[in-house]
Amino acid sequence: MITFIRKNKKTVLLTVLIVLNSCLAALGDGAATSAATGDKKNTIVIKDFMFNPQALKVKSGEKITWINRDEEPHTVVSVGKKFQKSSALDTDQEFTITAGAPGTYEYFCSVHPKMTGTIVVEK
Ligand SMILES: [Cu+2]
Fold first, then answer.
1. Ion ligand 1 neighbours, Cβ < 5 Å
2. Where are the domains of the chain?
3. How many A from CA of 120 to the centre of ligand 1?
4. Architecture in CATH of 43-122
5. N or C, which terminus of the chain has less Cβ within 10 Å?
6. What is the DSSP track for 83-111?
């Protein structure tokens, strides 16, 4: 019985450590991402007819890049024409804009209107 409890405590401790570790790892990744210079930080990958991430938060003035990893052509078109639209992006082709005024920007693919995404621009 005592052994069982000890074992259990150890397991809990181990679990806590693992959770803590992954939290730290996540924090580390975040720091690395924001420290990275260049335009690859805010990248939206188009794959399997989806924008990934579907919602992206950026700061005004930052660049946002879409890259098409599908075999199908896709476009990036702003709802209400709030930002410049892309041409049809072929496989591995990229499209970059610079985030403007703070706000929420919805967009879709004009070839497949069910493909949608959101950009949230913060100050
Ligand atoms: Cu599409």
1. 74, 109, 111-112, 115
2. 1-36, 43-122
3. 21
4. Sandwich (2.60)
5. N
6. SPPP--B-TT-EEEEE--SSEEEEEE-SS
